[in-house]
Structures are given as C-alpha cells and as structure tokens.
Amino acid sequence: MLVSALITSVGINSGLCVLFFTLYSILRKQPIYYDVYIPRLLLEGTSKRRSRFNLERLIPSPGWVRRAWKLSEEELLSTSGLDAVVFMRIITFSLKVFLVAGVIGIFVILPVNCTGDQLEDVDFVDFSNNSMDVFTISNVNSGSKSVSESVDSFFTEYHPSTYLSHVVVRQTSKLRGLINDAKKLYKRIIRLQSNSNQHKYGRAGCFGCFGSKVDLVDHYGKQLEDIEENVRLEQSELSMAGDEITAAFVSFKSRYAAATAFHLQQSINPTQWVTEQAPEPQDVYWPFFSSSFMRRWISKLVVIVACIILTILFLIPVVLVQGLTNLSQLEIWLPFLKSILTITFVSEVITGYLPSLILQLFLKMVPPIMELLSSIQGYNSHSNIEKSACNKVLWFTVWNIFFATVFSGSVLYQVSLFLDPKNIPAKLAVAVPAQSSFFIAYVVTSGWTSTSSELFRLIPLIGSLITKPCKSADDELEAPTIPYHRDIPRLLFFGLLGITYFFLAPLILPFLLVYFCLGYIIYRNQFINVYEPKYETAGKFWPIVHNSMIFSLVLMHCIAVGIFTLKKLSLAPTLIFPLPILTLLFNEYCRKRFLPIFNAYSAESLIKKDREDQHDATMNEFFDKLVTAYQDPALMPFQFSINTDSLNSPLLSSAEV
C-alpha cells in the first residue's frame, strides 16, 4: 500500500469520525432521540423530555466530552459496578503502555526503518507515492545471511595458513521427510511394475475407497514428480537463504591443525566458539542438528527417567522367571498345575529351559529401546549413539540379569530370610553360587542358541520370505551393519559370569568355552559374508570392555572375601583382600597410560602422518572432495521419476551448494 492510499483512508475515516461526533452532539440534545442516546437517564428520572424549541440544541457542543473525562472511578463504581471499572482499567492500562511504546516507536524505531534500504529508499520529494513497507522492519537491512560469513572470517583471520573450507549446517528435517516420501512412492511404483499379477488400477481417494478409478503407476508417478519438484525447490531455498543453524563443519589443511583448533579455546568468551571433533562424514547423525539446545537438554532428562522406569518394569519378568525355577513355589502360585508338574519332562522344561527363554525374549527388546533413547540424547554421530546404547545395555543387563536374579531368587526361595536378620550375610553369601544352575541354563539358551540363530539369521530369513513376492530385481540390496550395542554387552556379561563363577561354580566354564568357540567361528563368518561397516568408532568400544572386566574382577574379589569370611576360613580373606586394591590401582594406571589414546591422537602421530601426506600426489584430490564431504545428504540432488527431463539436474550446481 502507498502512503497516498493510507492518507486517503485516514482522511475518509477521520471525516466519518467528525461527522458522527457532530451528529451525536446535536441529536443527543433532541427530545425525540432521548430514548436512543440517554435511555438510562430517562429511566432513572434524572432527565426529562423538553418539547420547547431551543436554538442551542442545533449547535454541537463538547460538554459531554468534559463530563465523561471528569468521571471518577468511585462514581463509575457506584453507578455501573466493578465490571465497568475493570473495563475502563483495561483501556487506561493500554493507553499508558502504548503511550510509551508510541514514543519509542515513532522517534526511535520508525527512523531506523526509514533509513534502511533493504526494499527501497524513502522518497521525501514524492512522499505520497512511497510504499508503506519502507516504514516497517522489512526495510531494515538484513544482517549477514550466513553463519557462513562469520565462520569464514573468523577462521581466515585466526587460522590463515591452515584453514581450508567449511560447510554450514542447515535445518533439513522437512526436506528429509519429503525425500523419505519420495523413496516410498518409488518403491511402490517399482513393486507395481514388476508384479504382473498385481492390480494396477485403483481408486485415487483416501484408503483407495473413493474417487475415480486411475492407473496406479501413473497416479503414483505424478505424485512422485510433484514431491521431487518440492524437494528441488526446498533444496534451492535452503542452499540460498535457508534456515541456517549456528553450526558448521570446518576443514583444515592438516591433521595437526585440526587437532590444534579442536583443543584450543577459540575466543575470550568460551561460549562464543565451541569446537568439538567432527565424526567421519558417513558417521554424522544429521537429525542432531535439527533439535534445539533446550530440546536436547530435556531429552537427556527424559532418557534418565525412561531408563529408570524400564529397569523397574524389567523386574517383573525377573520375578516371574525366578518363580519358574522353583517347583514348590510354582505349585503354591498355580495349584491347578500340580498334576502336570509331576511329569518329569514337563518339570525339567519349565525349570531348566523356560526361565532362560522368557528372560531372553524380554531382553531382546532392550537394545533397540536403548538405541532409541541414545539417539535423542544429543549425540552428533551414529558411533557415539551406538557406544552410549552399548553402555546402557551392558549395565542394564548386569543389574537386571545378574543382581536382580541373584537377590530375587534368594528372597523368593527363602522368605524366612527376613525373619532372622542375623543370618542375612550368610544367606547372601550362599545365594550367589546357588544361582549357578540358572546361569548355566542361561548361557546355553542365550549363548548357544542365540549365537546359532545369528548364523541362521532367523528374523531376516522370515522377513525375506514375507517380502520376496513384493520385491523386484531393481530393488537395491543393502548389507546390514552388526549391532554392536546388542552383541558386545552379551559377550561382556558372559565374561562377568565366567569371572564371578569360576571359583564358585566352575561347572559353568565349559559351557562358556563352547559359547565363545561358537562366537569365534560364527561372527568371523558373518563379518566375511553378511555385515558391512558404514562407520567406524576407531576402536572406542574397548574402554567399555576394560571397565567391564575391572568391575567383574572387583565383584569377584568382594564375593570371595565375603564367602570365605562367612565360612570362617580366616587365612583366605587375608590373602584375597589386597586383590581388589591392586586391581583398582592397575585400572588407574591403564586410565593414565592408555585411555588418552582413545580420546585424542598424539601430536607425534599427527605430524608424522601430515609429513607423509606432503609427498602424496592424491592429496589435492582429497582436499577437493573434503570441501563437499560434509554436505547434508538431504541437500544432494536426486531423482526417481523417469517421465520428465526437467528434473534431471538440480537447480543449483554442487559448487554453488
């Protein structure tokens, strides 16, 4: 809208206001209109109709304005009530607020808006033809469109000889959703084209029940083209002036320079430039950048609460399993099974095989849940998510399978434990070796059978049989990655059982040896034929292994000291007592000597590798690839449809992106 249009509107409405004020000032004094303008005064009898003509009634007067202005709150309260006072308070409050806001807006903000030239300069000569937008914030000059310029200027100034390039991270959650929709439609089209027996005509409406009958291939193809066009437009907007996040991947010309920038505080204000080591390009977890700091902070609290709730809920199957291992207790719980439990084979299956199987089935749900919780916890890479999930699954297993089983089994088996508090230490000392039979069965069920099913790949086989009729030769084959967060905790837990029980119940050791022999052959075969790594943690699972072994040794020492003390073997506890101390000292040595290797590379190794790269002829090609290595995959050009040539190339070239 032009200024002249606003002036016209102001003039018309001002004239109408003056006209209404004038007419009111005249008509309110005419007795014939008293019932319109002063009905309350007529009802109260404070005003009467006057029939005698008076010239003054034809002249507008502002007396009513003066009386309304001078009306006090007390008078208003007595005549119209508290609601009227509140209503007028709202108006007076708004007047005070917008009086201050008006002064600031007119004398401070408006000049700033007018002096901008984002849209156009204000033409003071032909003022009426100016657009009203020049008086708004739209005319204020935009600041820098990229975090990109800030990053480039900072690292160019303070790392001039080593800084190579950077890639700003953008908000691409919406774009990823569009790409996923396009992939689903493409697979649906391929499935229809490859299956000659499948109906290729259907309804275009919701759920395929309404609308006209259409060729589904053409229908889905048009939808796919529309989505691809939306993807390209969204990519273009994001690449030119999209939702930038205050984060960027910065590349340097040498490993040593990157390590220096990572470890040094970049500015006087430590929160202004926060640096952390970037994961490998294929390891980046892009959804991390789409969540705000507050959302990640809340997610961490949610994860803690969820882990606690899951741990508590898992005690239910643990108690159930321990009840199954005790026939006499099971007969008390379920007396109608008493006759069946007398059959030898049934009782052996229920007490020997079924408890471990039930526990294993419940435990299979834990790794994917822990992986989900770790993914919302605020990690920027898949490897960190998997490490976090691995830790969660490990300690969940140790607590819920080992400790909960030992203590719940003992308490359920001997309720009289609490009736005689003096014997609690002795009972608990006996409880750990008493559960050896359960853990032997657990090793056989969870170890032998699960590892063999890993070779057979039962679940992927069933999935393949179900989806095979829907697949075509054009479907892309993808090799899976090994779920380390599922398998490493299982190996370490069996290691804990072996260390803890090797002197308490050494019969468990042959079963563990069979399990590890099976694992040695089966997993090597899977690495050769099945699993393909998509990212690397650089061996950072090993500190988890070390911590688990140290914990297992200290636990074994503590159990041994307690058992030998309660069995009144006075010399044995004295000999064993130094062992946990020596173990912890060894752990501290390892933390000082070896743990730093997993946290960062040494300057010696980085500089040595950089010197080797100086003689490598392929480094220039490597640097060229590094410029775009951290480009968000959602911003990469892609195409599934084959019916249009206009979609063959992206709106922007890769160099522009």
Task: Please summarize what this structure is.
The protein contains 28 helices and 4 strands. It is mostly helical.
What this model shows, in words?
The protein is mainly alpha-helical and 657 residues long. Helix content is 63%, strand content 4%. The protein has 28 helices and 4 strands. The chain has helices at residues 3-27, 34-37, 39-44, 63-70, 73-80, 82-115, 147-158, 173-194, 216-241, 255-263, 293-313, 315-324, 327-333, 338-341, 344-363, 366-375, 382-413, 424-434, 436-456, 458-467, 484-501, 508-529, 542-566, 571-576, 578-593, 595-599, 603-613, 619-629, and strands at residues 163-170, 201-203, 213-215, 244-252. The strands form 2 sheets. A two-stranded antiparallel sheet has the order 1-4. Strands 2-3 form a two-stranded antiparallel ribbon. The protein starts with a helix and ends in a 28-residue tail after the last helix. Keywords: Calcium, Coiled coil, Ion channel, Ion transport, Membrane, Transmembrane, Transmembrane helix, Transport. Residues 300-564 form the CSC1/OSCA1-like 7TM region domain. It holds the Pfam family RSN1_7TM. This is CSC1/OSCA1-like 7TM region domain-containing protein.
